[in-house]
Amino acid sequence: MGWAPGSESPLPAAAGWCAGAAAGASLLTSSIAPVLLLWLLVYNRGGRRLSKAAAFLAGSVVSLIPVLLLLAKAPGVVVFNILKFHLLYRTVEWSGATTHNLETLTSWML
After folding, report:
1. What's the total number of domains in the chain?
2. pTM score
3. Domain interval for residue 97
4. Which of 4, 7, 26, 33 has its CA 20 to 30 A from that of 80?
5. What is the pLDDT of residue 8?
């Protein structure tokens, strides 16, 4: 399976899909999408930067379609489950929750 000269590889879209799927699985991995997008824009080796960034973002949106559909159907439930619970209620009666979250969020840097 080859690619025509000058055509963009589907890899940026696949990377965006994977980053979006990871964020959909755990908000602690949501920081990887902007990092990968920035890396893609700065260290681009061939092809057009903006088309690769657009493919990456499109892949991210595609992987989040189930969440977006649920958000359209029941916005209150989705906002509570994805944001409010994890930001406000998850740490109740767990003194080490914030430390654990920060360690998990920054563990890829070490």
Report:
1. 1
2. 0.68
3. 11-109
4. 33
5. 66
